[in-house]
Amino acid sequence: MRYILFKLHERDKVSLGNIRCLNSVFAAKDGDDIWIRVVDNNSGVDSKLKQLPVKSTFTLDEKNQLFLPDAVTPVAILKEMEWIPINEFIPVEAPVSNLPGKTNHKIDIKLIQSIVERRGNAVLTTLKIWKEYAESASAVRLAVLKFAVSVTSEVLVIGNPLPSLPGKEYWLHNNILLPCGYDFEVPFVSTFLNNNILSGNKGVILFNTNNEWQLIDESLFVEAKRSAIRLTNPARSLP
């Protein structure tokens, strides 16, 4: 069996959060490098793998010989390493967000109550409620959702349609999540925040009614697969 191998630096380990739910992906550590291994089935690799900050790409044959892409001569022999399924190498709970209650940002931007009704795009709930919902929800309902979990067991769920869960709902505008029933006092604030805070970052800004906010990076979100939700345990990521 032939494999495709990707090598990246350990400092880029957080990027592996985007592939932790892929099947038949294994990882190994070698010094300051992380190796990712997938089966070469001639059908191409998942787009999420292509987005990794890879240093080098190789193919691996049955004799553990490493080849550069499209090369016919091996460049090295792969050393023995301990290969671990990616969901164990990068546990689902590893990257956690502070979320509200742990934020250390305050800005002089005010939210005011709004008379405009808006559908919620996200809900902040507890890990217990989220896990209970996931056990009975269909795979189709979960497939349109993603979530981020905090060290205090709060869970931010984003998707459409949004599940009806006990918690606080938020509506999304320009990558900014505002509590339902509220809006910025000054309308152009969302554009300002996108240009000055989200510029160059992928993620969302989560606002509370007390004007506290948190930038939540895209890498902190996990696809809402039942197996990933079951494995979520933020306490295990604490020192």
In short:
The protein has helices at residues 47-50, 86-89, 127-136, 139-143, 189-196, 226-231, and strands at 3-9, 25-30, 33-39, 56-60, 65-67, 76-77, 84-85, 105-106, 111-113, 122-126, 145-149, 154-159, 168-173, 176-179, 182-184, 203-207, 212-217, 222-223.
Mean pLDDT over the residues = 82
Could you tell me the number of beta strands? 18
What is the count of helical runs?
6
Based on CA inertia axes, which overall geometry fits?
Answer: elongated
Backbone structural class: alpha+beta
Distance between the termini: 39 Å
Give the low-pLDDT segments.
92-96, 100-104, 235-239
Strand order of the largest sheet: 8-17-16-14-13-10-12-11-18
What is the radius of gyration? 21 Å
Q: Helical amount among residues, as a percent range?
A: 10-25%
Major sheet summary line = 9 strands, mixed
Q: Report strand %.
A: 25-35%
What is the helix/strand order?
EEEHEEEEHEEEHHEEEEEHEEEH
Question: Any overview of this molecule?
Answer:
It is elongated and about 70 Å long. The chain contains six helices and 18 strands. The model is unreliable at 92-96, 100-104 and 235-239 (pLDDT under 50). It has helices at 47-50, 86-89, 127-136, 139-143, 189-196, 226-231, and strands at 3-9, 25-30, 33-39, 56-60, 65-67, 76-77, 84-85, 105-106, 111-113, 122-126, 145-149, 154-159, 168-173, 176-179, 182-184, 203-207, 212-217, 222-223. The strands form three sheets. Strands 8-17-16-14-13-10-12-11-18 form a nine-stranded mixed beta sheet. A seven-stranded antiparallel beta sheet has the order 6-5-4-1-3-2-7. A hairpin with an 8-residue loop joins strand 5 and strand 6 (76-77). Helix content is 15%, strand content 33%. The chain has 239 residues and is an alpha+beta fold.
